[in-house]
């Protein structure tokens, strides 16, 4: 339950991203700067948190072991996650981006066979490929149904081209974020805490943000002061606070695909938080009755996903064992 609570709090801070990214886009800011500035500002913030705890050198030691893997999965987990999110904000309002982003709930579950888990077998504990949690996946589909209902009326008013470019990038991001996060969990093997892992992934992906900034200067010029200030807020609340809390939650659920799926399902609450933010900050119109029904289904799905007990995995047959 603590992991679920941390996931919910992280969803609240993550929602700031969708609202502020949309705000920056409406004020004329480029999505290129929205993406790169977040991680460029995150770096000094994370260093200020890690240095006093004397955790930087242990982090660098672990990173030197397999630097190529750090770069690869950091680019996937951060680069292929956030660049598409910012691109989508140029074509869709924040609530629609947040709603489409809930695809990550299902994507996270579908990734289960790519990872090894430890389960009880006939000769003791064995390692096997993860299985897609069908019951949890059903709950995720229930959440997604609520999201679709909540956004249905508004989505009909958006041009198809905007809907397409506001959806396809998020599909990429929905797979990239849980994939990069879980691969880094495997790579570090519990030797680093969530804060160190976020800093390490930021450092490993730094060349991407520097290169992207160069494109930003060439394509859109320097960012405005307003976009810089809003990017600082995104870096602090979403990039540092929300990411660290979410990573801590996934750390607590590590080893159980069912629990991990439940933690990732908490991110569906971003839709409600983002909608509230747009109502308050961007003066968005009130949602329709259909949207409120969708919100209720999302909440019901969340409760079921986090409280309905899952059947523990039993012995695995010889044909199902995949020991590395």
Structure description:
It is a single chain. With 324 residues, the chain is mainly alpha-helical. Helix 1 (2-26) runs antiparallel to helix 12 (225-253). Helix content is 73%, strand content 4%. It is built from 15 helices and 2 strands.
Helicity range of the residues? over 70%
Write down the domain tally: 1
Compute the gyration radius: what is it?
A: 20 Å
Head-to-tail CA distance between termini: 32 Å
Determine the structural class based on helices, strands and strand pairing.
mainly alpha
Task: Show the helix and strand layout.
Layout: H1 2-26, H2 31-50, H3 56-65, H4 67-89, H5 94-101, H6 103-110, E1 116-121, E2 124-129, H7 134-155, H8 160-165, H9 168-188, H10 194-204, H11 206-220, H12 225-253, H13 257-265, H14 270-281, H15 289-307
Antiparallel strand pairs: 1-2
Helix pairs in contact: 1-5, 1-12, 1-13, 1-14, 2-4, 2-10, 2-11, 2-12, 4-9, 4-10, 5-7, 5-14, 6-7, 6-9, 6-13, 7-13, 7-15, 10-12, 12-13
Q: How would you sum up this structure in a few lines?
A:
The chain has one domain.
List keywords for this structure.
324 residues, mainly alpha, 15 helices, 73% helix, globular
């Amino acid at each position: 339950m603590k992991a679920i609570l941390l996931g919910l709090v992280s969803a609240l801070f993550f929602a700031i991203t969708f609202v502020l990214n949309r705000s920056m886009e409406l004020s004329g800011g480029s999505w290129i700067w929205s993406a790169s500035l977040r991680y460029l500002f995150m770096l000094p913030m994370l260093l200020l948190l890690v240095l006093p705890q004397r955790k930087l050198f242990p982090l660098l030691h672990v990173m030197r072991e397999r630097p190529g893997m750090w770069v690869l999965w950091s680019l996937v987990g951060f680069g292929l996650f956030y660049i598409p999110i910012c691109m989508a904000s140029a074509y869709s309002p924040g609530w629609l981006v947040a709603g489409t982003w809930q695809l990550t709930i299902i994507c996270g579950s579908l990734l289960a066979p790519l990872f090894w888990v430890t389960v009880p077998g006939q000769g003791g504990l064995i390692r096997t490929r993860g299985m897609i949690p069908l019951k949890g996946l059903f709950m995720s589909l229930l959440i997604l149904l609520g999201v679709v209902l909540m956004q249905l009326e508004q989505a009909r008013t958006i041009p198809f081209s905007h809907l397409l470019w506001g959806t396809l990038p998020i599909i990429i991001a929905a797979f990239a974020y849980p994939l990069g996060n879980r691969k880094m969990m495997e790579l570090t093997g519990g030797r680093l805490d969530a804060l160190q892992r976020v800093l390490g992934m930021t450092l490993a992906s730094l060349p991407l943000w520097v290169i992207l900034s160069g494109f930003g200067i060439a394509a859109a010029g320097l960012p405005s002061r307003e976009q810089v200030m809003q990017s600082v807020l995104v870096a602090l609340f979403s990039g540092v606070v929300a990411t660290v809390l979410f990573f801590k939650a996934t750390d607590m659920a590590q080893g159980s695909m069912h629990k991990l799926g439940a933690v990732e399902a908490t991110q569906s609450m971003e839709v409600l938080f983002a909608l509230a933010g747009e109502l308050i900050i961007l003066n968005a119109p009130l949602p329709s009755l259909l949207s409120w029904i969708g919100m209720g289904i999302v909440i019901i799905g969340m409760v079921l996903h986090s409280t309905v007990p899952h059947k523990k995995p039993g012995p695995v047959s010889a044909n199902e064992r995949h020991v590395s």
